[in-house]
Design goal:
Elements (H helix, E strand, L loop, with lengths): L1 H14 L2 H24 L5 H10 L26 H11 L6 E5 L2 E6 L2 H9 L10 H5 L13 H15 L1 H6 L1 H17 L6 E2 L1 H17 L10 H18 L8 H4 L6 H22 L6 H32 L1 H14 L15 H13 L10 E2 L4 E3 L2 E3 L4 E4 L1 H4 L49 H18 E5 L9 E3 L3 E3 L4 E6 L7
Parallel strand pairs: 2-7
Antiparallel strand pairs: 1-2, 3-11, 4-7, 5-6, 8-11, 9-10
Helix pairs in contact: 2-3, 9-10, 9-18, 10-14, 11-13, 14-15, 14-16, 14-18, 15-16
Bound molecules: protoporphyrin IX containing FE.
Cofactor: heme
GO molecular function: heme binding; iron ion binding; monooxygenase activity; oxidoreductase activity, acting on paired donors, with incorporation or reduction of molecular oxygen
Pfam families: p450 (PF00067)
């Protein structure tokens, strides 16, 4: 009876003149929308997963465990800052280390903190695409290697890059360039020797940028040179990093996209023509148009990708050396034995500097520049991961930071122990960080693994060897070394490292 009265009442409302019915209709629709939002939200993994499961029917009902987050926005908060730490903590609390589902607004996401599942994701052909952020589109990076869709175009770009930058012959050919830049860095620090407190970040970023500009455009800048072109490229790269590293709400909530509340879209729209003009100008000047538009599509990305990872990693390594003087003096002993104090390091020494190589790996383990492997992967088709159904369009992440600190896979994982990577002349093969063992794969793995990994690691190891060979690296006495992190495009030291350097040998022609 009550129901009849209610329906009569609703009927009466609707049949009244349209003015008085509208508010009730809006209210009813609002309530329906709210109920649906709560229904979706109640699902493990939150609203985006709930929406999928309610729409796709019983076939896909075995749910991946994961946090619900908040209605509608899901777990956007997990990506707010130091996402690798927040995601690891969430996976722990949901007992979902192998595979955790979560929602970033309307985006379905999964993340793994386990090497076996990481291998399954990274090496699967299903995850050969990347989700393209608005910032990447606006900066036209969807046409660059890092974001291009898997297919003929992407393969062609990777082949061009391999032939012009990353193959062993090219890496060998740029040895002299790395040597010259290392000498410039040594001279810069030498001028600040003694008890002067020096920030290393600016020197490392400039060195790294100059190295890339030299390799990609043939442009040679001095480390301390300041002219309009150097300043312009530095500003463009800084702005680009920041924009690509930001979590953009518009990528995950269609209804806020038009508002561009974080002004990321606007800033990208302003930056893109500047980058284009800059790159176009240099290419035109050098008559490199033969590389055509395809060449142009990947060169600017190389500058963005290659510069910060190298500088960020070297800063972490130097910070560890300052903190762990015992490890630093073992590296010094090795350098004295292999190189000797009468000359500087050369790249031909590197194969003998096994302890130094172990130090670099240990820093990559504890402080990977891309703790979530920088850019996620996107499922091209429906697939199964770790026994769970993962639908097409799902974003997949690997929490390399969590894996490489997990006591299940590493002895005393939080201890800085480079010796764990020494094979002591046994038959044990050297641990490769290039993606074959997913307990430590800071360059990713599979089809979309980092194409710059050999070049990157060669540069880092050689520059670190040169800087440690020439100087003792000491705390600056006032600031100390703060290992707090900040996650932008890469995970950097939140408080830039300041040091004092004492020369270990006299430098000719400082
Ligand atoms: C220490 C140095 C570096 C680290 C730790 C690093 C790390 C990474 C990681 C984790 C990825 C994602 C891989 C995946 O999804 O499996 C990546 C991709 C990429 N990296 Fe690196 N990288 C470094 C240096 C470089 C350098 C020097 C360059 C170029 C000059 C470069 C260019 C790229 C490009 C173009 C991609 C996208 C590849 C694709 O999507 O096909 N990287 N890097």
């Amino acid at each position: 009876m009550k129901t009849q009265v209610e329906s009569l009442w609703v009927f009466a409302l609707v049949s009244q003149d349209s003015f008085s019915a509208w508010p009730w209709l809006v209210l009813l629709m609002g309530l329906a929308w709210l109920s649906l939002a709560l229904l979706y939200w109640a699902h493990p993994g939150g609203p985006a997963w709930g929406r999928f499961h309610w729409r796709s029917g019983p076939a896909a009902r075995r749910s991946i465990p994961g946090p619900r987050g908040l209605p509608i926005v899901g777990s956007m908060g997990l990506m707010a800052s130091l996402a690798h730490r927040r995601l690891a903590a969430a996976a722990d609390s949901c007992a979902a280390k192998r595979l955790m589902a979560f929602s970033l607004g309307e985006t379905r996401a999964v993340v793994t903190c386990h090497p076996d599942v990481a291998k399954e994701i990274l090496t699967s052909s299903v995850f050969a695409d990347r989700p393209v952020k608005e910032s990447a589109y606006k900066l036209m990076f969807n046409r660059a290697i890092g974001f291009a869709k898997y297919g003929v175009y992407w393969t062609t770009l990777r082949r061009i890059a391999a032939n012009h930058l990353f193959c062993p012959k090219q890496i060998k050919a740029s040895e002299n360039q790395r040597q010259q830049i290392a000498d410039q860095m040594v001279r810069t620090f030498w001028r600040n020797r003694g008890n002067i407190s020096t920030r290393v970040r600016e020197v490392l970023k400039r060195a790294s940028l100059n190295n890339l500009m030299w390799s990609v455009f043939g442009r040679v800048y001095g480390l301390e040179e300041s002219n309009n072109e150097v300043e312009e490229v530095r500003k463009l790269v800084e702005e680009g990093y920041e924009l690509l590293g930001l979590v953009n709400w518009s990528d995950h909530l269609r209804w806020v996209a038009d508002f561009d509340a974080q002004r990321i879209g606007l800033r990208c729209s302003n930056l893109a023509p500047k980058v284009n003009r800059f790159v176009g100008g240099i290419l035109a000047e050098h008559r490199q148009k033969t590389a055509g538009e395809r060449g142009r599509d990947f060169v600017d990305e190389m500058i963005f990708r290659g510069t910060d990872t190298i500088a960020v990693l070297i800063e972490w390594i130097l910070a560890k050396m300052v903190l762990r003087q015992d490890v630093q003096s073992t590296v010094h002993d090795e350098l004295d034995r292999v190189v000797g104090r009468s000359r500087s390091v050369s790249e031909s020494d590197m194969s003998e500097l096994v302890y130094l190589s172990a130090v670099v790996k240990e820093v990559l383990r504890l402080h990977p520049p891309g703790p979530l492997l920088s850019w996620a992967r996107l499922a091209i088709t429906d697939t199964t991961i770790d026994g769970y159904h993962v639908p097409k369009g799902t974003t997949a992440m690997v929490n390399m930071w969590a894996i490489s600190r997990d006591p299940e896979f590493w002895v005393d994982p939080l201890e800085f122990m480079p010796q764990r990577f020494l094979t002591h002349g046994s038959n044990e093969p050297e641990f490769s960080v290039f993606g074959s063992d997913l307990r430590l794969a800071p360059f990713g793995s599979g089809r979309r693994t980092c194409p710059g990994k050999t070049l990157g690691l060669t540069t880092v190891c050689f520059w670190v060897a040169s800087l440690l060979h020439e100087f003792e690296w000491l705390p600056d006495g006032q600031n100390g070394v703060d290992l707090s992190e900040v996650l932008r495009l890469s995970c950097e030291m939140a408080n830039p490292l300041t040091v004092m350097v004492h020369p270990r040998r006299s430098i000719i022609n400082p």
